[in-house]
Amino acid sequence: MFAFIERVGARLPDTAILFLWFCAAVILASVVAAGLGASAVHPATGETVAAASLLSADNIRRFLTDMPRTFADFPPLAMVITVMIGIGVAERSGLIAAALTRGVTRVPRALLPAVTVFAGIMSSLAVDAGYVVLVPLGAAVFAAAGRHPIAGLAAAFAGVAGGFSANLFITSLDPLLAGITQTAARVVDPEYTVLATANYFVMVALVPLFTIVGAFVCTRLIEPRLGTWSGTLPDAPATETSLERRGLRAAGLVLFATVAATVALTLPAGAPLRDPVTGSLEPFYKSLVALTAILFLLMGLAYGRAAGTITRGEDGVRLATDAMSSLGAYLLLAFLVAHFIAFFNWSNLGVLTAIGGAGALRSSGLSGSTLLVGMVVVTALINLFVGSASAKWAVMATVFVPMFMLVGITPEATQAAYRVGDSVTNIISPTLPYLPLILVAGARYVPGFNLGSLIATMLPFSLAFLLSGTLLLGTFLALGLPLGPGVEAFMTPAG
C-alpha cells in the first residue's frame, strides 16, 4: 500500500503545482457548497455558519487586496526566516557538520531512531520550533551516521508533529485546551474546574510508547523501504581536525554562556522572561524561537572564528546572506500553502467539516469507552482538514464535553480522547503549515521528494501512533487509571 502511494505520488507534478490544484479544488468545493446552501449551527456561538463561495465579490476582493498580508501572516514564515539566520551561519561556518560528526559517534547506532523520535516529542515545549530546527537536523544526523536521511527526517517529524500531544512536562497547549474544556463543562455544571494537569498521566505515558513505536516503525518499516542512501552530507568533514576541535570548544563555551544568561533572564522572580503579573514562564516559551536563532548565530560565529572559517565580520554577513538565499523554494511553496489554508478558512469549509464530524459521532449511538474511542478516530480524521488544535477543540468541545458529561464521562476524559486523536494525523495532513519546510528539507537529500513521497513515508507512523495511542487510552479506561492528578475518566452516580 505504501509503495502504491509513493508510485502515485511520483507521477504527481511538482509540489507547488499540486498546491495550485488544491487551491482550485477548494474554490470549486466552496462554489458547490455555497450553491447547495450548506450550513450548520456553530455549537459555541449558536450562530449559523454557511459555506461561502470563494468566487463571490467579497472573497475575490479579499483575495486580491489581502494577498501580501495572507502571505506575511502565514504562521511559520517569520519563524523559519528568523531561525534560518542563526542556523545558516552555524551550518555554513562548519559547526553543525562538525557537531554531527562528533555526535553520531557518541550515540549508539541502534538508539538513533529512538533518540530522534524522543527529542521530537519533547520539542513541543518549544511550541513549533521543533519543526524548524529538529526535523532538518534529524535528516542531517542520520546522514552523518551513514543512514538514510529521509528516515531521520521522518523520525523527527513523527515525534514533533505526531507526538505533539505527548510530553513529560506541561506545555503551553495544556492550559489553553483546559480553559476551552472548562468553559464547555460549565454548560452542565457552572462550578466545574478543569486543570492544566487534567491529562498529565496520559501525556507522560504516551512519551515512551510513541518513542518505542516510532523507533520500531523507522527501523523495521521505513529504512528497509528506503534502502541505501548514496548521497553525501552537505559540508560534512571526513574526520575531526584540531581546528574543528578548537571550534567546538569555543561553541561549547558560547552555549554555556547563552544558557546561563537565559536562566538569569528567566528563573528569578520579576525576571524579564516571566509574566510581570502572573509570574508564569509564558514569555520564555514565546521567546524560544528568538533564543534559538541567537544561540545558533553566536555559536556559529564562535566556531567559525576559532576554526578559521570566519576571519572577519564580513564573512559572518556573507554566511547569513547565503543562508537566506537558499529559502527561495520554501518561500514559493509557503506562499501557495498560505493561500490554500486561507481559502479553506474563508470558505468556512473547515468549520463545517468539524461541526459535521461532531454531529456524526453524536448520532452514532455509541456509549462509554466506545464513545471515547470513536472520538479519537473522528478527531484524527477532522485533523486532516483543520490543523489548529485550539480552533478545532473550540468547536468540538462545545458539543462533546456537555454531551459526554450527561452520559457519565468526565470532561477530562473527553479532552484526553481529543488529544490522542488530534496530533497523530498531523504528519499526513496537507493543511499542516510547516509542510513546505518538510518537503524542502527532504528534497535537499533526495531530489524529487514530493508530497506523495512524504505521505507514503509518514503513513506508517500515523497509523501506528493512532492504534497505539488509542490502545493506551483504552487501557487507562479499562483499568480505571487516573488521567491526571486526581482525575477519573468516568463520573460516579453522585458526581
Explain how this protein is built:
The protein has a two-stranded antiparallel ribbon with strand order 1-2. It has one domain (2-479). Helices cover 68% and strands 1% of the residues. It has helices at residues 2-11, 15-35, 57-72, 75-92, 95-106, 112-122, 129-144, 149-162, 173-185, 200-226, 242-266, 282-286, 288-307, 313-325, 328-346, 349-362, 368-382, 389-405, 411-423, 435-443, 451-479, and strands at residues 39-41, 48-50. The termini are far apart. Strand 1 and strand 2 (48-50) form a beta hairpin. The chain is globular and about 70 Å long. The protein has 495 residues and is mainly α. The longest helix has 29 residues, at 451-479. Helix 5 (95-106) packs across helix 7 (129-144), helix 16 runs parallel beside helix 18 (389-405) and helix 19 runs antiparallel to helix 21.
What is the strand and helix layout of this fold?
Elements: H1 2-11, H2 15-35, E1 39-41, E2 48-50, H3 57-72, H4 75-92, H5 95-106, H6 112-122, H7 129-144, H8 149-162, H9 173-185, H10 200-226, H11 242-266, H12 282-286, H13 288-307, H14 313-325, H15 328-346, H16 349-362, H17 368-382, H18 389-405, H19 411-423, H20 435-443, H21 451-479
Antiparallel strand pairs: 1-2
